[in-house]
Batch of 4 targets.
Target 1
Amino acid sequence: MSEDFWEATRRRRLVVQRCLACGHRQHYPRRLCTACGGTELEYAPVSGLGVVDSFTVVHRAPAPGFEPPYTVARVRLAEGPILLTHLVGDTDWACDLPVRVAWRPLPDGRHLPVFRLARTDQEDSAHED
């Protein structure tokens, strides 16, 4: 059910489900719209902008391959859905900070959406290569 989501990450596109009946957007992928129960859902692109809704810093690795400390967060996208994700970058994280999607490559060509502190347009243009 989540194949289209992961396929979009190969092109570094963030998508969420959108109900064709009521327009509600949701994430994680489901078979039914959580707003109206509709079954006609499509994947629609989102801006990749959001705010930190909640977070925690993990200091103990749950399994090999996880290098602590790292920050796990709920990010509320500008379009409404909430994603469980990682926050990256050397930041003193706090709730309500603005964030922007970034991408962590996976071995199979997909990318994991992670989030970093959003900079202003002026800061973004100063950091363009």
Target 2
Amino acid sequence: MIIDFGLQSLVRVNRHLRIGKTIRIPKSLATVTSIKHTDEVDPVSVGMTVEGVEAIWRAVEEIYRTGTHPAISLCFRRQGKIILNRAIGHASGNGPSTTDNKIQKLMLPETPVCYFSGSKAITAFLIHLLHEDKLIDLHDPVSFYLPEFGQHGKQNISIHQVLSHRSGMEKMPNALHIDSLADNDEIWQHLCATKIPAAQTGRLAYHALTGGYILERIINKVTDMSIQEFLDLRVRKPMKMKYFRYGLPPKQACDLADNYATGFKPTFPISYFIKRALGASFERVAKASNTEIYHNAVIPSANLMGTAEEMGRFYQMLLNDGIWEGKQICQPMTVRRLTREYGSLECDSTLLIPMRYSAGLMLGGEPVGLWGPHSAQAFGHLGLINKLLWADPERDISVSLLNTGLPLIANNIPSLINFIASINAHCSR
């Protein structure tokens, strides 16, 4: 209770703080709030209260009030039913810069957003489908399928090590930068030529971008399909997704919400770690993500795009043991393999915080973890720190919180923690 009181107090203070670049907050939040009423069911039908659900939405409004996110959308399910499907803010035209001259466009629940690193969960799932199909074994070396990868000490790096961020391949090659992300062939050549010291393999270090390109090549090799085609065949079409693609075609890209760098611009040494992981600053990432090149690219670790509801639909399918609306998207054992812990809590040498991973997902913890208190069974993924995408089988919930601000140093973190705490407080295990 003391911790909760302190968090609530900090959140209230945050209403009045403006750290670095922030957006203009309207006097009435109702004027920038969109609700898909036809989706939302009575909270009582899933063992919740109206007051509890209102408290969760107020927590979202507190995130918006920090001024660090021009747009936020939330899809929250319990017991498979949508409780909240809402959005707040502007998809474009209310960025933190005075040079943002775009016409203001309201954020809607059906507005697609780039999931950034939330993409990794889907790419990992596709690899697990290959294992289910007996086309690969997760513990085989990558070089068994792609011999050219086995150069310079990488011959024994397994697919599982790539999925669980233990391959030693966490850094993008120095010769590459964010403008190279769309050239998958060039990136693959550089990754194959990378030298890895033997002691580096097995160490936990988050792969911000590299892992996706390796996993994509495996999919190409064993299916003779592009990763986009395989995603369409096994996930997007069977689950009736409108978006949910790596990048978006021009007709859909015009629906996409813009991203904005907010908060303080990080300085050394933080800026060094960001550049090492992402190949660019948050400002450069935000600008690049709004370009046609980025929308047309396939970046398996970073540019899956879709709505909050679509990502929530994916996590709900996992909660359903691989079933969506009567269709078996994957076998229950595949869900177990995807969500099972691999290695106990350990300091991640890229993120510099203790983390628990499965072969593709970020896990919760006990007594507290990434997904809140008593969340040891919860699994999901962050998207560039601020996007919160997870499911918790003990609470029978799937949560997809998307936003378009890219702050690293700002006052948004207490509000994000408060949101997770609010979800867990109003959903008993």
Target 3
Amino acid sequence: MHVAVLLYPGCIFFEIALAAETLAGRCTLSYYTPDGEPHRASNGATLVPAGDLSALKSAALQAVLVPGGDPRSLMLPVPRASEALRAQAATGALVAGICAGNLVMAGAGLLVGRRGTHNYTAEHAPPAKVAATRHFWDGMQFVRADLVQDGRLITAQPWAYRQYAAAVARTLGVLDEREARDLETYVTRRSCGDGPGPAEA
């Protein structure tokens, strides 16, 4: 199984880090950048891509993960990643966006006539950003939710990175339902909470 991560200047690796970590030991994980050049990630690591957007378009993939961040390098002056994402979606690959990754998907026209979510709303974004991105959501059925899956498309809010990782892994058959639920709920199940403090020596 081969999964791609679409990286771009200004993207936030943290949002897809858990998904990448979950998938890495169970499938081939490759990175792609707009120009095929090495990517300096938001965590300071340098990631060597397998190719550029043209290579992403033609790769035999089961999924493409699209992180959030500042997608202007992919969206301006025209949505540069559109052909690659549309080509992968047409083959049946899962396309999964989180935060601004949803905007990249919308720019590719993948969300027209589909259910999805995003955080470019008055609740979560300044008025100027809401206005500037409004046309991208034309034709999408907005769902106010942390994560929405419509067939082979996933859109997720930035804080839903655990649900995102679990949904991707579940859809690809990498985790079974119990394992996926464990991944989603790990923090609530494994927190110290208000229990006793450190044991005294």
Target 4
Amino acid sequence: MLHLLSLFLPTVIPSWRFFKTVAPSPRIEYRLIEAGRVGDWQEDRPRPGHLGLGQILRRMLWNPEWNEQLYLVSCSERLIDEPSQHSVDEINLRVARLLPAGQQELQFRLVFVSREQGQIVKLVEYESSPVSLITLQEAVG
């Protein structure tokens, strides 16, 4: 019985040893460019400032938005470690899907946020080339 319990417990109680390293994840920021006018950088999918108890409970059972956010974090981390066009394309497509249609170009960057001497510091680790928003939204369907 103890052997069976020792096999079952790791599936219920997560272990930090599952991860190779624990480090800050890059955040995705985007901006729109239209007719040479460059917009301000905006955080993609900012976290809500407050969640009620009902929202927390619902999110524990059903949260496809958070699953997609975790996928984007994974793409971002891969893009930093081993750059690939696949990761760039996935981030572009998923950011573009939530934006209103328009003639703009989309550009994203990956930033690491840290606190140094009481100030918040952003370190830009990657900046993409601008891509047509219409082309991306047509690819999404």
